[in-house]
Amino acid sequence: MISILRASCLIEKRSGTTSETLEGTSIDRVGERAKTITNANTCIITVSEGRYISRHLSDRKLPFTRARQMAEIDLSEGTPFNVDDVHICFTETSDSTGSTNYFLIRKGVIDPVIDSLVDAGIRPQSILLKAPDGELQLSLQSLRSVHPVFVRRTWPQKLLIASLVLVVLSGILTFGHVYYRYAQADEKLAAQVDEKQKAALEVRKMLDRRAQDIAAVEAARKSKAQAVPVVRVWEELTRILPDTAWITDFTLNGDNLSFSGSAVSAAGLISILDASPLFADPSFTSPVVRVPGQAGERFAIKLSVVRG
């Protein structure tokens, strides 16, 4: 028997009419010390007075689920404890018409003891609360809510679990067989699809190249039909520019024309070019510069060619 005292634990070994006790065992080492003294695989945990709190809930017997819901409400409203820090427990009672009380045990008090016992290979069987008029045993539902070690499966439950495992294994084997046959068929189909995809890809590449060639020819044809001939642009420039202007650089890129040169009066060229029906938006691309030692001015002009 493991008794949880105020500051430590008491380990008691009973053999017939004799008993042996060990006091002052720390909570985190109770499992190790109990295994050394008793060499037992099971034990009973007792919680002494002062290590738990008892609260009255109802003057009549309540079902466990309903009682726990009411206890959580009472805990949050009537105590300073947090529901996550304590275990809400109920005791076994044979009086179906009696009142309902619940008990609070701090998790920091009971959990380390149970964990230490489980780590040492000792399985707690029950938890008793020491009271002035005797010992109160926690109900099975309360024990299960305190720690998973108290969850015990009955033979019908074990048989049900075994049956479910067999059904799952049978399903896995059946699925594996079906999947194996499906994988073989899928592999064969994938090989055939791969061959067809390669052939289709070659045809697609050929069609894409043909479409690109057709598009290039069509674009060249449209560009040629829409573009203003260079000869026409040159003829227009030589026609409208005065004899005092000379062109030294000429560039025609689609509808954009730029040229540079020298003229006696470069400022007058803009109005001349703007008056031509073939040109639009003429402007200097850089300041007009008079070259020392020469009679003319250096200029650079850009404009747009109007398609007719």
TrEMBL record:
It holds the Pfam family PilN. It comes from Phyllobacterium myrsinacearum. Keywords: Membrane, Transmembrane, Transmembrane helix. PANTHER family: DNA UTILIZATION PROTEIN HOFN. InterPro entries: Extracell_DNA_Util/SecSys_Comp, PilN. The chain crosses the membrane at residues 159-180. This is General secretion pathway protein L. The keyword Membrane applies.
